[in-house]
# Entry
Amino acid sequence: MIKTLLERLRQGHRTIPFPGKEPALPDLFRGRPEIDPSKCPDGCRACAEACPTGAIKTEGGVTIDLGRCLFCIDCVDACPAGAIAHTRDYRLATRRREDLVLSGKTLELAKALDGRMRSLFGRSLKLREVSAGGCNACEADVNVLNTVVFDLGRFGIQFVASPRHADGLLITGPVSRNMKLALEKTYEAVPPPKIVIAVGACAIGGGPYVDHPEVNNGAGGIVPVDLFIAGCPPHPITILDGLLRLLGRIT
Amino acid sequence: MTRVANGEAVETRAIPRLPMEEFRATVIGAVEKGARIAALFARPPEMFVVLAHGLDGVLSLAATTAAASYPALTPDCPQAHWFEREIAETWKIVPEGHPWLKPIRFLSGAPAVTEYFQVRGEEVHEVAVGPVHAGIIEPGHFRFQCHGERAMHLEISLGYQHRGVERALAGGPDKRTVHYMETLAGDTSVGHATAYAQNVEALAGTAVPARGLTLRGIGLELERLANHTGDLGALANDVGYLPTASFCGRLRGDFLNLTALLCGSRFGRGLVRPGGVRFDADAAKVGEARKRLAAARRDVTGAVDLLWKTPSVMARFEGTGTVPRETCEDLGLVGPAARACGIERDVRLEFPSGIYRFAQIPVSTWGTGDVFARAYVRWMEIERSLEFVEEQLAQLPAGATREAPGRIEPGRTAVSLVEGWRGEICHVAMTDEHGRFGAYKVVDPSFHNWIGLAMALREQEISDFPLCNKSFNLSYCGHDL
# Structure
């Protein structure tokens, strides 16, 4: 027992001060991409051609669909003019799917739930996680929100085992054909009113598996989604930021 | 049989085509003499086998023509059981006499075969779990045959994560290929990307610069450190010992953040590319990594040491979920699960490639085959990986990090093995006459090991399932592909 207590003292307090203070992110962190169209050579489509998921469109100005973006480096490496770069902006959550299509420099970040929903869930939100066909990286970085580092419980948010105890679903993965029924049943089992959060490129738009006949290109076509959190996988801070925006704890 | 080294390519037409009878006898005979099936797959109209000869450090390849059916290998060679089920499901080639021929992934739609192995008798009952589980974990279905609290048999039914990756790999490499590799199992991005890179390098005849090889090795060991640390925390959590669970939960993140220091991604996305690595580390970054590694070493040692000194933890770990060594050998388990049965099976020792040809990591084994052994092997591997990463960071070779691969040769077969944190990752790339992948076979370590979990649960309390499961911590997506 004394050994346990001594070790506890030695390990110290490790919870980060987010959202009070800005998080520490690695130098190479790939957040919201930024395009400088003034640098684009005429008729150049190099970034769009390099993009593995077709997230970049060049017709009528360059746009990046962050719902499809894998936050890889392929477009940056392909650009001959250095017109595209990742910023360190970790805030990538929106309320509407179309808001993830980035044309300017800013993103219409998620607004809080409206009055009644916010009064119901604002201080206590129980979520059931459904993993549906992804690679388990989103699941892993959702899971770490429960560690002492992020300490999700302090915001009143908790992951629960039964959909009957939940206020909503947090979905990861493109929704494989083999998980569609289980997702539908889990959604049905959550008592209304309920919310749905899609985390990661797969759950938003199919991710690297977009248009595979084995998947459904995300959760949106199966259940109504209230919050989209982009990334592949999103950093835990990005997920936490999204959840707190939905609850009106960050504005 | 054609002999090939890890990360080497041969002419596909040079692989001997044996009549089925001889093919069977060759595989069964080799496995009896200690070889292991690393991959067994079909590329109709042919069927290929990759045998791993650990003691000699070589792999061997053979092929046969697969008709609509053939006499199954499984009754004489249990290691083939899951491979033959996969072949039957994917290509409709029937292994006659297979004792339990069911689909493993349900390629043609949601779980269609719902008949499970059943035990009948008074007071025997069945427990069904999943696909949606209680925690934040991947989907799978578990069917237990129980007598009271005692589980007599567990059948594991997967496929919910099937997303058609292996199918989509054929015809590559293209702009999605490397991203498929990094998401075969998201917690093993560096492992699978390295296996892929080795194959491309073998097919294109690329020599990776020493600095690139070293940084890859560092990435792979950091992946092991993060996952092993997380697993020890999860094991502590499952026996209700929260101090280590909480410390390790945080420390796992410290190792992930070290990977992010090197490449911007906690999961090593973008780090490994054919020909080397995408990101270099300057002196300042190496210094920072060494400082953080030393701090993490101190904390993880303190956190894990508590496990071995806490009798309530040891009482739950010892003697739970034992896999006998013979079972492990018969089924060809890999990774920490095999080393916990006292078997010296580790790609880094047996088939070293990349940096492991120059810097050996001793193999960690323990002989008891129980949850304790699987936990303790992980701890020993943490210590050794820490030493390895510290050593490599201290003597990082100068020079380039990447040599861009040239043209991929047509008509060749390359085999690549990597010791991922779960065990042996095997990738087989076969190019067609245009230098595209005619077939690309992926064998995640979980493919070998799911049956090990089922065996570990025999005659156990059903309430020990979470603990046994965590002690294997297998990948659903890596299996389902």
Remarks:
- Chain B touches chain A through 61 residues (CB under 8 Å).
- The first strand of chain B starts at residue 2 and ends at 4.
- The two ends of chain B are 29 Å apart (CA to CA).
